[in-house]
Design a protein that fits this description.
This protein is mostly helical. The chain has a single domain (14-105), classed as Cobalamin adenosyltransferase-like (Hypothetical Protein Ta1238, Chain: A), CATH 1.20.1200. It has three helices and two strands. A two-stranded antiparallel ribbon has the order 1-2. Strand 1 (14-16) and strand 2 form a beta hairpin. It is globular, with a radius of gyration of 17 Å.
């Protein structure tokens, strides 16, 4: 196996952002990444356990949207525009999610 899986760049308690720059490892953005990553992983487990095609499709769509949210948080530090092109989270996505939640909770 070539290449390392570590950079040692975070050894001083900081980590790099997608758009450049560094923040403390306890920065709220890093917590957001971790929480969303855990959520997408849990959804993957749920997807593997279901035989319902509609639920599977909804999970796949939601996982993709959460990955986009992580990219937006990483690429737009402090909400500022970024040189890196990432999908923007828009209100229609939130509305669609709310509709799916209402469907499953009804």
């Amino acid at each position: 196996m070539s290449g390392r899986i570590y950079t040692r760049g975070g050894d001083a308690g900081e980590t790099s952002l997608l758009a450049g720059g560094r923040v403390a490892k306890d920065d709220p953005r890093i917590n957001v990444y971790g929480t969303l990553d855990e959520a997408t992983s849990a959804m993957g487990m749920a997807r593997a356990a279901t035989t319902n095609d509609d639920i599977c499709a909804d999970i796949i769509e939601l996982q993709g949207e959460l990955i986009n949210v992580m990219a937006e948080v990483a690429a737009r530090p402090g909400g500022k525009p970024s040189k890196i092109k990432v999908p923007e989270v828009v209100p229609a996505q939130v509305e669609r999610l709310e509709q799916r939640l209402d469907h499953y909770l009804a």
